[in-house]
Amino acid sequence: MADLVTTPNIAGADDFYADLIAAHQGLTKAESDALNARLILILANHVGDRTALAQAIVAAKNAGRN
Amino acid sequence: MSRIFETPLYPYARSPDQDAKGPVRRPVAVVGAGPVGLAAAIDLVQHGVPVVVLDENDKVSWGSRAICFAKRPLEILDRLGCGDPMVDKGVVWNQGKVFFRDRQVYAFDLLPESGHKRPAFINLQQYHFEKFLVDRVRALQAEGRPIELRGGSKVVVIRRQDDGVQLTVDTPDGPYRLDCDWLIACDGAGSPIRTMLGLDFVGRIFEDNFLIADVVMEDSPDFPVERRFWFDPPFNPGQSALLHKQPDHVWRIDLQLGWDIDKREEAKPEKVIPRLKAFLGEDAKFEIEWISIYTFQCRRMPKFRHGRVIFAGDAAHQVSPFGARGANSGLQDTDNLAWKLALVLSGRAPDSLLDSYDAERIHGADENILNSTRSTDFITPKSEASRLFRDAVLDLSEHFPAFRPMVNSGRLSVPCTYDGSPLNGPDHPAMPARTRPGAPAVDAPIPGGWLIDRLGGGFQLLTVDADAPDRLDADGIPVTRLALSTAADDGLLAERWLGAARSAVYLIRPDQHVAARWERYDEGEVLAAVAKATGRA
């Protein structure tokens, strides 16, 4: 039962971000959406912890509100 | 060929009740001679309660309908004295394959746990199932047990009273009055009893149609005994498909059709046969046994008990067919109800014991509705995002085992544990979770046979490496002991019933569920637990 990490946690954040955008290059909207869905599932499985996952869903929803 | 479901099995016969001067009163009437009604009647008469079953028809169900029966219901059927013919006739299966679009994404083996008398599932047509139950009714009648099966008998008027129910039963000879102390309504999802009483049946309707075709393929080497499920296959684009083996070379084919269809048109052979050929192959030789187009709902009654009228099976709750939770949960309903009603009728338990039927079986129904709703949402995604994730899970599951547990083509029926039931007594923290109070007894091999065959029917003390009296009178309710030892055990008994405890004393209910457990016998504790489990405390 670990809390969601919401402080900087990726060494080389710019490189990760560039990798993420590069993965979507040349894809149609539908292909990009499917890639994102697969990526979310792969990352969720890696995290595993249901508490952290539930907090992540809430955090993502809340951050989208103005 | 005359098929089993076309032959009258319990044709109408005039009952002496129809010629009686005044209305005859019976302790229990069961309405509906489907799997649930017949199981209820057999269970009650085995508990010594005379019972009359009324059904407007006189045959087993039309077509195969429910085909998958799980381990727990098979154990219940053993207790009812008709498990063997079901399992002997049924097809045992463990393997399955999942397909997505044009390819197989993975195969699975359910690898059943060893040390159980009964398999995880059998496939058996509902008409065979009902026929074996009717055979059991006939055998009980031959022993002189008071169980009656009245075909061609339709309940047309029902009047509830404080101490019973008045019925008017219509027959080919005209109507007659029949009164009963208790009525069990097992008259299916469209329950006329529920409608006549104006009771609610609320839930979620799924806007979809499914075509069920049962086909006979005498020679079918390409289709082994396994469950096959397709998401979005080329032969049924955007929809799902299921193939499953039944006895007698019968195969169940289930094709999702979508919502905007003309049902009557789609059920015509000229529409069905090309669909089946696209699925089975142009050269496949098959004969259609039964076709049905169905839609489904996930819903339940807010309460199953309404005074002296008690609802069970589809009449009380309805789920999608994915997961085989319909008939399987109905059998768990009657398993739960029969012993309670028998105790109440004999004056050894208060009427309020029946409220625990509501508590325990509503818990079961909600579990089934939750599981079956989730399966349905995976099989037929209701939004673009839902479909996106569904497809992502399927794509990933082809490459990584991590995602296979998320593939949901039906979570197959598992026994319900009555956690939090008002009937549950003390627990012991060192003992295994799977045999906690509320759980159904977990089978294990014991000297000379199976544990499950030695349990049920009355209250029992199951002792493992512990002392206790062989017999106990709990204020009129007999409790008998089943003494087991781990000395001659291969480890399964200890693993399933002792855990980290040195010894164990379990109080087992007549339906084989655990009521309470302790490390050692204490008369006061046991008597208090029996009182609690029978609604007397």
TrEMBL record, chain A:
Stored Pfam families: DUF2783
Protein name, as recorded: DUF2783 domain-containing protein
The organism's place on the tree of life at top rank: Bacteria
Automatic annotation (TrEMBL), chain B:
Pfam annotation, one family: FAD_binding_3
InterPro entries: FAD-bd (IPR002938), FAD/NAD-bd_sf (IPR036188), RIFMO-like (IPR050641)
Cofactor or coenzyme needed: FAD
Keywords, sorted A to Z: FAD, Flavoprotein
Gene3D superfamilies xref list: 3.30.70.2450, 3.40.30.120, FAD/NAD(P)-binding domain
Domain FAD-binding: 27-365
Record GO terms (molecular function): FAD binding; oxidoreductase activity, acting on paired donors, with incorporation or reduction of molecular oxygen, NAD(P)H as one donor, and incorporation of one atom of oxygen
Protein name: FAD-dependent oxidoreductase
Species per Swiss-Prot/TrEMBL record: Prosthecodimorpha hirschii
